[in-house]
Write a structure and sequence with these properties.
Distance between the termini: 55 Å
Number of helices: 5
Strand content: 5-15%
Structural class: alpha+beta
Helix content: 55-70%
Shape: elongated
Number of strands: 3
Radius of gyration: 18 Å
Largest sheet: 3 strands, antiparallel
Strand order of the largest sheet: 1-3-2
Order of helices and strands: HEHHEEHH
């Protein structure tokens, strides 16, 4: 009887944790898509402050998962985020030379920001990132 109760509790805890992680991944995907839109818009509005239209995904990962200290958890979560972002029809994945190295980059190719998005979210770069983190001025 005790084993059965313990098993049920473990399954329930796993289901709760999976649901929480799914919510977190959805939020991080939205953050990534917002960052890509912001990067693309910034590039077209003021290329002197945003010299590239793309984002290096590993830099974005480090920025949006900076509070996740477990490498194993960070990798598991990022793989899910990366899969969803790369499957999005508004995102193009390419290889670009950045600081002399060929690295994967993401570029927003979808439409411009909508008023609903503007009301829903504060600019990702204002919330989380320094001005140059997403640009290719840092070494990989």
């Amino acid at each position: 009887v005790f084993g059965l109760v313990a098993s049920i509790m473990a399954l329930r805890r796993r289901a709760i944790n999976n649901a929480a992680e799914s919510r977190r991944v959805r939020g991080l995907v939205q953050d990534a898509l917002d960052a890509l839109q912001d990067q693309e818009t910034g590039y077209h509005v003021d290329p002197s402050t945003t010299p590239q239209p793309y984002i290096v995904p590993v830099r974005l990962r480090d920025a949006i998962l900076q509070e996740e200290h477990s490498i194993r958890n960070r990798q598991r979560i990022w793989e899910k985020v990366q899969h969803v972002v790369e499957e999005n029809a508004n995102v193009r994945t390419n290889v670009q030379e950045v600081d002399g190295e060929d690295v994967k980059v993401w570029t927003w190719v979808g439409g411009q920001s909508t008023p609903a998005r503007d009301k829903r979210r504060v600019s990702f770069s204002e919330r989380t990132l320094s001005g140059t983190l997403l640009n290719d001025t840092d070494a990989e």
